[in-house]
From TrEMBL:
Enzyme Commission code(s) on record: 5.4.99.5
GO molecular function: chorismate mutase activity
Keywords annotated in UniProt: Isomerase
Protein name: chorismate mutase
Gene3D superfamilies linked: Chorismate mutase
NCBIfam families to which the protein is assigned, alphabetical: CM_mono_cladeE, PRK09239.1
Organism: Amaricoccus macauensis
A GO biological-process term: chorismate metabolic process
PROSITE patterns: CHORISMATE_MUT_2
Length: 105
């Protein structure tokens, strides 16, 4: 490759990496906002004796995310794994709220 081609490739690479960095920041802040809401849900569930997990809602959410992934040209299996990971974290947090609430009684 000529030095002009290498320089052009390096510029393109830098541009892609800057976009990736911005998108990573968006993902982190979006996840933080999502977890703020799920923490509130966990507190409400604990206060009202509701189970930490809601399998019916989880199934609907997974199917919804798979459809969105298909529309976005993202692998639906990846989207499902990603949401399952998030759901397992949310349930873990809800279980902790339930434990804390029952210890406070």
């Amino acid at each position: 490759m000529t030095s002009d081609a290498v320089r052009q490739a390096a510029d393109l690479l830098r541009g892609h990496r800057e976009s990736i960095d911005r998108l990573d920041a968006i993902l982190v802040f979006t996840l933080a906002e999502r977890f703020k809401h799920t923490q509130s849900v966990g507190v409400l569930k604990a206060q009202h004796g509701l189970p930490p997990s809601d399998p019916a809602r989880e199934s609907v959410q997974i199917a919804r995310l798979e459809r969105l992934a298909e529309e976005a040209d993202l692998d639906p299996a990846f989207a499902r794994k990603f949401l399952n990971f998030i759901i397992s974290e949310v349930i873990r947090h809800h279980e902790r709220h339930l434990e804390n609430h029952s210890q406070g009684d």
